[in-house]
Sequence to fold (263 residues):
Amino acid sequence: MCRFLAYRGDPIFLSDLVCAPRHSLVHQSLHAEQAKTGTNGDGFGIGWYGERSEPGIYREVRPAWSDENLRSLCAQVRSRLFFAHVRASTGTSTTRANCHPFTDGRHLFMHNGQIGGYGRIKRRIEGLIPDELYEMRLGTTDSEAIFLAALALGLPDDPVKAMARVLRQTRSLMSDAGIDEPLRFTAAVTDGESLWAFRWACDGSPPTLYFCEAEGSLVVVSEPIDDRAAGWREVPKGCTLVARSGQAARVECLNEAMARLAA
Fold:
């Protein structure tokens, strides 16, 4: 499973969170503690917002721990909102196009988890993506497919409802194909102002997700990056962390949103 980090607040250097902490994301790329595998060496990526409405992106197939360009870039770039992700492939190739975060216009998306039996239903999942968005599909991952499908289902207007829809539809396709493997979805999306983070799995065992708010800043992580254990709060299973522009983060029930779609 992958590891990721999201930040929103006053501008800081990316290195303050991505590289510097004792258990930073770069450290987690080789020594993750709360994942199935301790090594996340199948590429990495960062996306950040600066003076323009659309984010900058840097993605690379080398492991994060061995890329000197990543450390140099993070030491120079300041941002009020950024994503960072280290990848552990669940079966697709290690290419730049398969590295997170994925982007469309002002939106960034990154994912930790997998669609069980993805190879058996890949074409059906891609069928959820309309032609005008499918031309943006550059890679082969289930994560990118979910993102593009969610865009088609209304992500720019209501990310929680769009993700609930795509998860329900994906789960239905898995059921129709007789797939018993789980769908696990821990993810984050932003439009450059607000931020949403999701933690859900059909088997009740989603990848870990934590957040910490302090002095107007919000940090969302797969696992805590330092020893401030008291400051980190776990996002409950089946829930979404919603941090709208200018507001404190709150937790909403994603399971309830999915249930409303079934009503």
Remarks:
- The first helix runs from residue 15 to 18.
- The chain has eight helices and 13 strands.
- The chain has a mean pLDDT of 94.
- The radius of gyration is 17 Å.
